[in-house]
Amino acid sequence: MNGLIGLDWGTSGLRAYWLDEAGAIRETRARPWGIRHLPDGGFDTALTEIIAGWPRLPRLACGMVGSRQGWLEVPYMNLPADTTELGSAVRSLRAKDGSDVHIVPGLRNPQGPDVMRGEETQLLGALALRPALAADSTWLLPGTHSKWTRVRDGAVIDFCTVMTGELFALLRQHSMLCAGSGDATVDTDAFARGVIAARDSGNAGAFSRLFSARALMLDGALASDSVPEYLSGLLIGEELRSSLASNRFRHDAPIQLIGDAALCTRYRLAASHFDIDLAEPLADAAAYGLWQIASHIGLVSAGSSTASKETSSC
Amino acid sequence: MNGLIGLDWGTSGLRAYWLDEAGAIRETRARPWGIRHLPDGGFDTALTEIIAGWPRLPRLACGMVGSRQGWLEVPYMNLPADTTELGSAVRSLRAKDGSDVHIVPGLRNPQGPDVMRGEETQLLGALALRPALAADSTWLLPGTHSKWTRVRDGAVIDFCTVMTGELFALLRQHSMLCAGSGDATVDTDAFARGVIAARDSGNAGAFSRLFSARALMLDGALASDSVPEYLSGLLIGEELRSSLASNRFRHDAPIQLIGDAALCTRYRLAASHFDIDLAEPLADAAAYGLWQIASHIGLVSAGSSTASKETSSC
Questions:
Q1: Among A29, A120, B82, B214, which is least packed by CB within 10 angstroms?
Q2: Contacts of residue B245 in chain A, CB cutoff 8 Å?
Q3: Domains A4-130+284-313 and A162-271 agree in fold
Q4: Can you give the pTM of this predicted structure?
Q5: What is the pLDDT of residues A284-307, one digit of tens each?
Q6: Chain A residue at shortest CA distance from B112
Q7: Which letter, b or e, does each residue of B103-118 get, where b requires 16 or more Cβ atoms within 10 Å of its Cβ?
Q8: Which residues of B touch A178 (CB under 8 A)?
């Protein structure tokens, strides 16, 4: 049997894909076993359990599993980087079950500096799904640490990390701004007001407006339970404002989205208040990226019915 | 005996001043009894204990003690506001010891909106110490919630709150950026690098550079224990950058500082990387501001040896 087990292994979660011999997703499993939340037995146990019952296939992983705190540190590669270069830097370890686990490197942007792990693989997968965008495109991967990325000629040539998701979580859980707010209320009006406040903050930026959440609440102009939605809008709006102000990411064509559907909906709503267009998000991009790299380095023979060398060695 | 007991009563602390008949500070006491950290017995007990042994004198308070969560809510006054207007809006309560406590209102800036409580009194005290600045000046009160303030003709005409101190505390305690850093290391070089990164972030702003703290650390270019100093510089630098970019606060003359000496030293160091001059900070401004307001509303008779009406009524 040909095919691949793809692992998208981040800080807070692990997602495993069983890809068939044509690179199509046959099954997906997710566990909360990020590298900081491993089950007893660590990486080996997490892997064994998440792929239980699947056939023995080559295993290729991306994400924080390749970081210093991961299973095997795979050094960052400097930009620009494409599939060939990423494939050439894959490193491998022998798991306790006797088979290898191959790990994709992360990318380093010497301008910044800045780093990513996992998103580079999602980008390659997305480019395989949308080959017309390989020539020149901007990609936004929202999340705990949002990544704004520029692709040209099939390679990642620039990116920037914005800590929007982590900042929102910090403010939501610990700031006095949210001290009086109960459960999160869905309030698209409050969200939109936050976005607009950020957009209109000009070159001063929206972080000088964070306190407006409290002042509006004291004014009776913002319900206490809507403060989190306002802050979400303010932070996502600031991410859009600052990324556009940096002039590093072209937005004369739609910006491509990769990520969680609900979060991408928030970003598309926020973008409607700016003069930019965010495309519908792509799902499971990591799986397709892992397939691309696996094909490139001969872990799998795409389109071939014969088992790859790696598979036969398992 | 003439004189005043002045209370600077904030969220996290209580400071009491015994002012003599000339408005000079005779004794100062500080307790960690902010309105969210009151001793058993609440406001009355805190007051009784902090002024124990002092003579019965009129009591005037400023700060969060006048907020909705305080001892008595004193509504915000809209800008512009001077001593006369603040004095006219003072409200009073009768404490359990039978004497009154008078409380200064906070200020509201309809542009924003924005609010302050306590800083308006510090500003009035500072203007009494530096009367030449009453005509037209910019004031910076760094802290958990920094206040940038414009004074003209003796009145507060504009202000803006920047949550620099609270954001730093959140990042220091809870962010993955500081996950590997131990005790805070004094590292003026790392601090300066953060300030410069913020200054040079241009119109994008420094919040898109927060992640550089981690990337520099991974690069080996920033010691893990120095990340907090870098972040402190980045956030204070961003406060300076954004306040200058807003064009709301003139800085062709020195900007006046009021606040904690160590924190003000940080701000002056940061300002040295911008084209602005921060003056030496003024201390105990709240006490002098309370004296100004008390004199204005007849709680004390400045320069008179006769007890004020209020004192004799105690």
A1: A29
A2: 202-205
A3: yes
A4: 0.92
A5: 999 999 999 999 999 998 544 333
A6: A212
A7: bbbbbbbeebbbbbbb
A8: none
